[in-house]
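Hi R.,

As promised on Friday, here is the backbone we talked about, encoded as structure tokens. Could you run it through your design pipeline when you get a chance and send me back a sequence?
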């Protein structure tokens, strides 16, 4: 069954992109997806795919056919022994929490929010933090992929190249209609929120990365920066040039069956709970105006890249009060993942909406350029085809795979044609 949505207007979460597709379709079965692709192919209509629409970049916009996977969600099976879960592409990250926990399992890692579709998150290498932890892309171990030719391919570890191409493919190889996700045995997450001065941040950077499950921070350029993202901080503390630091460690899951308050007091924690209850940051649920850029640099350049951006904020854009969020991610194999082949530091920052945020973000990109950055595909970026080809070692292999599966470019829009045709 396919439902056609009226009116035909799509606006992304951040409301920086709007398009008027000729059709917005919501298929509720794999057959309906195949029918849509076959008809579009026959009639020469281009197709784009959208998850929950949380990307800031024009990777899901089109004036032709837009396929939404809202009606193709849900967890189909959980295999506790194999530590795998199989689900529809439109399953939201938050849908996994309870059901996996009941089976003694949790997601391997999570980011700041949990509203994205699982395949939207995989397709852009959405990540949390933890230098030993990979992005959602690496957890995608088997896909059913409906191609423009009307075939449904099973993509898994038996063809490592096709798997690495599919994991981060921005919907350019086909519509993913099912995914098998690697998950893991459950654990309790112990959270400490701390507020560090600049010197302490630099001093503890490497050690926390080596020894913690999760280290990440929001560095604040100004005293009122926490207000930008509705963040709380201790009364009377001046947050200028100070960071709100998240430190997370794993404890055995059964600690949650005991006296949780006593453990919190003894270990001086902020919270101790199931991971899926701690990861989504309530600060991001509010009415924030975000226009965000996020670039990933190799771990060894991370500190210098952060310092260069801090300098830009303090000296050239004192009116831009947004914090710099800094996270750490392990290397992975997905060809278009910004973490391909290298442990990475992700650096992100927003521009103020009423101000000239594009000029600010362009300058942010220029400042990060010497550190060999790769963009987060779901955020605002400033790259051309030549830069993408130079910074993603498997770029040519990806484009060859794309041309093989979609020779007519049915799944390309203007932006993807510019970067990947
Ligand atoms: C408030 C907020 C917080 C965020 N926090 C984080 C964070 O902590 N970490 C992080 O890394 N990123 C974060 N992001 C970015 C976000 O996770 C990515 O942009 C992600 O891709 C959004 O998922 P989505 O379901 O909305 O996908 P969409 O933005 O709708 O689509 C993303 C891509 O996936 C493709 N796609 C979607 N479904 C399918 C399918 N079934 N088959 C084939 N292709 C498909 C689309 O065509 C598109 O190219 C955040 C964004 C926002 C707005």
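Update: got your reply. Pasting your designed sequence below so it's all in one thread:
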């Amino acid at each position: 069954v396919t439902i056609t949505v009226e009116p035909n207007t799509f606006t992304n979460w951040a409301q920086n992109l709007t398009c008027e597709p000729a059709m917005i379709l919501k298929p509720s079965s794999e057959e309906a997806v195949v029918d849509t692709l076959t008809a579009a192919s026959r009639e020469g209509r281009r197709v784009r795919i959208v998850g929950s629409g949380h990307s800031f970049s024009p990777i899901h916009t089109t004036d032709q056919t837009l396929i939404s996977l809202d009606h193709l969600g849900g967890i189909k099976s959980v295999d506790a022994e194999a530590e795998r879960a199989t689900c529809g592409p439109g399953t939201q990250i938050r849908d996994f929490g309870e059901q996996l926990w009941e089976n003694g399992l949790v997601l391997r890692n999570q980011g700041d929010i949990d509203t994205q579709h699982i395949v939207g998150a995989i397709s852009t290498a959405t990540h949390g933090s933890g230098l030993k932890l990979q992005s959602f892309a690496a957890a995608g171990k088997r896909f059913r992929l409906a191609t423009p030719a009307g075939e449904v391919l099973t993509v898994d570890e038996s063809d490592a190249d096709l798997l690495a191409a599919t994991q981060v493919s921005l919907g350019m190889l086909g519509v993913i209609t099912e995914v098998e996700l690697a998950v893991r045995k459950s654990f309790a997450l112990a959270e400490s929120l701390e507020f560090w001065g600049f010197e302490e941040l630099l001093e503890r950077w490497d050690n926390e990365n080596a020894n913690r499950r999760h280290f990440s921070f929001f560095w604040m350029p100004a005293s009122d920066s926490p207000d930008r993202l509705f963040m709380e901080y201790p009364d009377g503390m001046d947050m200028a040039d100070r960071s709100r630091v998240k430190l997370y460690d794993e404890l055995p899951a059964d600690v949650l069956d005991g006296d949780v308050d006593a453990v919190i007091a003894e270990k001086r924690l902020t919270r101790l709970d199931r991971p899926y209850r701690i990861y989504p940051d309530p600060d991001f649920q509010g009415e924030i105006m975000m226009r965000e850029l996020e670039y990933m640099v190799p771990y060894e350049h991370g500190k210098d890249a952060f310092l260069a951006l801090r300098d830009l904020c303090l000296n050239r854009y004192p009116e831009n009060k947004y914090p710099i969020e800094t996270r750490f991610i392990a290397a992975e194999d997905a060809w278009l993942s910004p973490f391909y082949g290298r442990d990475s530091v992700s650096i992100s920052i927003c521009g103020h909406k009423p101000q000239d945020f594009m000029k600010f973000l362009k300058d942010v990109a220029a400042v990060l350029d010497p550190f060999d950055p790769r963009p987060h595909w779901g955020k605002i970026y400033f790259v051309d085809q030549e830069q993408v080809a130079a910074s993603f070692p498997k770029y040519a292999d990806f484009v060859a795979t794309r041309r093989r599966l979609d020779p007519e470019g049915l799944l390309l829009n203007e932006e993807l044609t510019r970067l990947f045709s």
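One thing I noticed while checking it: The chain has a mean pLDDT of 95.

Thanks again,
M.
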